[in-house]
Structure formats: structure tokens, C-alpha cells
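Lab notebook page, bench 4
Experiment: in silico fold of construct C2
Operator: M.H.
Input chain length: 129 residues
Purpose: comparison with the prior construct
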Amino acid sequence: MNPSPDLRDRLLALYRAMSSGDADAVEAFYSLEAGSVFIGTGDAEFWTDSARHNADVRHFFDGRSGVISWNPGDALSLVEGSVGWTVDRPTLYLPSAEVLRLRLSLVWRREDGVWKVVHSHASLGPAPG
């Protein structure tokens, strides 16, 4: 396992896309290959189909209901061959002024030379402050 500044930069680029209100930019980070799995913070948030996952969460990133600002914590990125993973505790600032702290793990795979998310798991951490 090797630290990867390249993959950390890719994670930060994902956060910027998530903060932009451009859902198409966010979706470009996610693999559409079979076998991808995404787990969110709610009981019903479990997807084994990338296209369905993207459709179900698109409203979080389309900017129509305001923009969620994603701010990194102490992101760690590691790579082993064509697979990498990032773990972080980002802080989210919601349009409602609510502040959330996530625990986020992403597994990435190189597809045609580009890092794509093939697995994500998010859980709510303790409230900031």
C-alpha cells in the first residue's frame, strides 16, 4: 500500500464537484461497471447498481435545492495497483445552515486511466463543536 497524492487530489476534485451544484460533474466520478456498491447513511440507502445510485442521489448535487458545501478533513489516500481507497471525515454545510460531519470511505478503481469510485460508505459522525 502506497500513499497517493494523485488519488487524494481526485477525492478533493470530487468534493469540489459535489459543492458545485453540477450533478453531471459528480456522476462522472462514479463507475458504471457492474459490481459497484454504494451505502449511504439511511436504512434504504444501499445500491448495487451505479446508474440507480446516481439517479437516486442526483438531487443532492443538482443545485436546485441549494448547494451542499463539502470540506475535507484529514483525507488519507492509498493505492495498491489499479485499486485505491480514500478515507476522510469531511464537514458538510447544508443550505439549511445545518452542519454535518461524515465518515466517508471510498474504494476507487482505474478505468481507462481515470480513478472511478466503485464503492462508497458514508455514516454520520459526531456533531461538530
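Observations: DSSP finds three helices and nine strands in the chain. The radius of gyration is 14 Å.
Next step: discuss at group meeting.
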